[in-house]
Each structure stands twice: as structure tokens, then as C-alpha cells.
Amino acid sequence: MVFLAWLKNRWRRDAEAAKADSRDYLLAALPVTVGVVGAALLFPRAIVPVLVPLPAPSSYVLAAESRSDTVRVEAVHRTPLDAQTRELGTAFRAWNLMAFRSDDGIEHDAHAQAVKLGAIARGLRDGGAVQSLLALRAVQMHVFLTELRRFADTGEESDELREVAGNAVGRLREVGLIDGHRLLLGEQTYRVFYKLLWNRVLGLAADELFALSMDDEREMARVQLAHPHASETERVILASDRARAVTPAQCDLVEQRTREAEDRWRLRKVEEWGARDAAYPMAFARGVLLFRLARYAESGRAFSAAREHGGAYALRAVFHERAALVASLVE
Q1: What is the 3-state secondary structure (H, E, C) of 200-228?
Q2: How far apart (Å, rounded) are the C-alpha atoms in residues 51 and 284?
Q3: What ranges do the domains of the chain cover?
Q4: Residues 206-230: pLDDT tens digits?
């Protein structure tokens, strides 16, 4: 109120002094304009947050990893893998094909095959055949990417694709990373996805010689946050509700609940990833998602933490923090 009174008084005084020449009104308006701009800077406007920041993997590192795998594949073409490594590759293919079986013995056979896979992989790992294992992974990854491109062109899953990746296409389609037979991601992303799949099946995900690099993980986290989906349980419930929805209001409600479920899932991923990567602006990302979930007080605290932390998102956090405050007062 004091500031507004000062502006009014200053305008009146300068206007009266400029009556002798109407052109001087321009000069009279100058301090008022400065005051208004200063007030806008002093009291930032509220801006509703929209975008969640994504992890930024190094494209150079991902390309270098791809070249290393290509070198391994070319070496195998010159000198075939040893018999035990080839046996592991065959066992891995047999495991993947079980995803398409529906007979009663599948559970028993899957367990037996998993035991066999783990035993062969551990034997090779403990015997120092790390390079052979990496070469096998590179070869099967090459087959996967080749067959995936063919799938994108034809819409048909080949036996070869199923043997090296199991039901990967179905899973990628389920979480929105494949649309029909259209690939929504770049090849580097599918490459990282396959490494993760292969490591998990063979029990090597936690082994530092096979584990994903930090940039691999950043790429997976980037894809997860850019393409969110509800948890598996919520997807089943939402699909049932969507099938029963008849009126536009019911359909809108299901879509709203879907977005909320996706944002809850994404919030968990943000917190998990932020705990692993200190470079990721977790506080800011939490603020955006909490705001989207109408948890305005928590959102404001998250943006406050982002503002205090400084960095590239500090200024934006100021405007979003104010939006969270306004929303919490209106709620």
C-alpha cells in the first residue's frame, strides 16, 4: 500500500510540473514505469510448473559403448565363441521362448532353466571368461536390434527376435514404448534396454563388470520420466474402469485418474533416481509432480529447497514456489 501511494503521489507531482508542455508527460511517466518494473522483479509472478526435468546422458559415452559392442561382434565373426559360452547362449534362447508357452509344466521348466542359466553364467564369470560373456551379450544384442528393425518394417515378430528377447516387444508395447509396430525410441535406448534385460536374466545386473554405466542408467531414467505409466496393479484397475466407462464424464474421470497414477509412478522414479545421481535436480522435479498431484504445500517446500540449492533451476523454482503458495491458499 505504501508503495502504491508513493507511485500515485510521484505521478501527480510530476504531472503538475509538466503542464507547461504536454510532451513532458513522457518524462513524468519514467519513474512510475521504473517503479512498476521494480515491483514486478521484487514480487515475482506465479507460474504453474509443467515440465519435469529429464536426466541428460552423454551421447558420446553411449556411442562409444555401441562401438565397443560392434568390435566384439566383429571379433566373434572371425573367431567363434568357446563351447561353454555358446551353451549359455543356447540356454538363454530356450529361457526366452518359455514366455510364449502356456502349458502346465511351464513353471517347473522355467525354474530349471533359470538354475541352469545361473550356473553356467557363474561358472564362466568365476573362471575369468568375462570377455566371452561380454561378447555373447554383444552378439545377442546385435541380433535383437536387427530383428527389432525388421519388426518395425513388417509388424511381425520373428522367431529369432523371440529367442533373443522373449516377450520384450509385448512389454515395451504395454508401457507405451512401442506403438503397434512403430518404435518410439532411438536405437541407443533399445540397446541399453537389452543390456539391462540380458544382465537380469543371467544374474549379472549387480556385477560391476557387466552393470550398466551411469550414462546407460541416465538414458533409462530419461525414458522412464519421459514416458510414464501407472503401476502394473493400477493399469489393470484403470483398464477395467475404462472398459466400463460410458458417458463423457466417466471417460474424463478415468483419464484424470490415469494421469494421476502416472504422476505417482513418476514421482517414485524421480526420488529413486535422485538418490543415485547427485547431478539430477530432484527437488525441482518433485515440486513439479507434487503440484500436478495437487499436493501444493509439499510442492512449495520442494521448490523452496530447489531455490536454496541454486543452480540452473533456482530462478524457475522462485516462480513455481509462488504458484504453489497461491494454489495452497485457494484450495
Answers
A1: HHCCCCCCCCCCCCHHHHHHHHHHHHHCC
A2: 10
A3: 2-42, 59-226, 230-272, 281-331
A4: 899 999 999 999 999 999 999 998 8
